[in-house]
Sequence to fold (254 residues):
Amino acid sequence: MINILMSGCNGKMGQVISKLAASFDNITIAAGISRQPDKYSNPYPVYTNYTDVKEKIDVVIDFSNPDVLTELLDFCKSRKTALVLATTGLSPDDYQKVAQTAELLPIFMSANMSLGINVLLELARTAAAKLSFGFDIEILEKHHNEKKDAPSGTALMIANEINQQLDHSMDFIYDRSQKREKRKNNEIGISAIRGGTIPGEHSVYFAGKDEIIEIKHTAMSRDVFGMGALKAAEYIVDKRKGIFDMKSMLKEMI
Fold:
């Protein structure tokens, strides 16, 4: 049995994962972490501090907040537990801390835990390689009105994958309102919409002369992210150390 600590258990994704875990025969949520421990009645103990966790933990799934990253990593190092890190909005300093911790233990890291969005990444890389001349690239992402970071971590992940395919020759443009000039050829425009209860939608546009190719992924519910996170927990628990992602998991699944 894989014992999971659900970090951010009383958030939207934490509650989704708590419910989905019941469908796994080999996974149990052993404990949770929340700033509001009494917000929901969970079938496991909920703590406000990682240092209070008494249960045996094999993997931490984190959908919380960048503010607690240091405490989270310290807990994983002290317990030698694997980590599925799905929190977005991390700073360059945060990524450095994650990389240092991954020298000691396995960390699965992805801005989007959906299997489908990772297929979109492959399609976007292929399109970028074939359409690098004469096509403008734009990314549009839509999320619910409670999402704090913009653009989304997934939109940045898509842009970075395309840029890597194009030898890091592209500039990311987040706001065109301050400049009155033509679009440059080496731009990737990234736009964000926030409204209602949209779980997540990402579109990549390759706009050429008289033709447009659109690659789009729509999440109909948060369950797709929850299932991906639980699959990632299964995948990462037996790894020794290093940073892993959906690309490496999908490669092993095929």
